[in-house]
Write a structure and sequence with these properties.
By secondary structure, the chain is an all-alpha fold. It contains 21 helices and no strands. The longest helix is centred in the first third of the chain and has 50 residues.
Amino acid sequence: MSNNSNTSGTSRSIIIIGILFFIFGFVTWLNSVLIPYLKTANELNNFQSFFVAFASYISYFVMAIPSAKVLEKTGFKKGMGLGLIVMAVGALIFIPAAASRTYALFLTGLFVQGTGLALLQSAANPYITVLGPIESAAKRISIMGICNKVAGILAPLTIGAILLKNMDQVEAKLSTLTGAEREAELDLLSSRVEMPYIVMAIVLVGLAVLIYFSSLPEIETDKEDESLAEANKNKTSVFQFPNLLLGTLAMFLYVGVEVIAGDTVITYAKDGQGIPSEAALQFTSYTLAAMIVGYLIGTVTIPKYISQAKALRISGILGILLGLAAIFTDGFVSVLCISMLGLANAVVFPAIWPLALDGLGRFTKIASSFLIMAIAGGAIVPLAYGSLADSFGLQQAYWVVIPCYLYILFFAVKGYKIR
C-alpha cells in the first residue's frame, strides 16, 4: 500500500513538473514569433531584432546564482511558485511596452520573464533529477522534454497566428504610409501583443497558486546519505567537483547548438539553399519533431537498455555526423541534416543534468544554478555562427557546431567520471 502511494505521489509530481516544462517551452519558443513581429512593429534591423533572444537567454547567466540563493531560503516548491509570479510580471510589462512601442521595455519584459524562468528551471530541473533513482533521471527529464517541445510547436501556431496575422499585407501597407498614418498603423500592430500577454499573466498566476497548494513534496538535497557525506566531508565548494564544471561547459555548448539548429535553419534553407519561403518555414517544425522523437526514444531506452552516459555518447557522435553532412551536401538534404540535429540534441540536456550533479549532495542547489547559467550558451554560441556566416557563408558557418559536439562526446566518454 505504501509503495503504491509513493508511486502515485511521484506520478502526480511528474505531471505537475511536466506542466511547468510545458510553460518553459511555450514562453521560450515564442521568441521565434516575437523576433519578426517586433522587427516590424518597432522598425528594427536584423541585428536589433536578435536582442529578443539575447535578452531571454542572458537572464539565465545573470540570475542563476541569485536564484540558487532564493531557493536556499524558499525550498523548491515555493521557489517554483515564485518563478511563475516573476514570469507573470514580465508578461505584464509587455502591456506598457506595446502601448508606447518601446523596444527597450519589451526587452525588459523578456529579461524579467527570463529571470522567472531561471528561478523556475533552477528548481524544476534538479527536482525532477532527484525525484526518483539517479539512474533513470534522464528518462524523467526526457518526458519533461516532450512537454517542452510540444509547447514549442503550439506556441508559434497559437500566439503566432495572432501576432503575425496578415503580416505580409501589413508590411506592404506600411511601405506606402508616412507620418501620422504610419504611426497609427504601427500602434495598431503593436496592440496585438496586449491580450495574449494578459492571458499569459493570468495563466501563470493561476499555476503559481496551483503549485503552492499542490501535494508536491519538498525534496531535501542538503542532507546526504552516509557514504556521500563521507566522500564530500572535505569539500567546501562546488568548484571541487570537476564533473560539475565540465558538465557546465557541455551544457553551455549544447544550448548553443540547440538554438542554432532551431533558429538558423529557416534562413539557411531560404538564403543558403534557395528553398522557397513557404517550404523553408517548415524546417523548424522538423527540428522540434526530431527532438520529440529523440525524447521518446530516450524515455523507452534509458536506463533499461542504455545508460545515460552512452546515450550522451551516441548524441555527440550523431551531432558530428549530421553537422558534417550538412556542410558537405547541398539542397534539401543539407537543410534536413540541420533539422535532424534535433534528434542528436534531444537527450543531451536530460543526460548532462544527472551526470553533472551526481555526487553533489548538499551542493546540489548551487550546482544546479551553474547548469542554469550555462543556458546563456543560447545567447553566445549563435553569435559565433552569425559572425562566421558573414565571413564565410551560411553553410560553412555550421563548422561551429563540430567542436561543440566533440566536447559533448568528451564529457560523455571521460569528463563526467572525473571527480
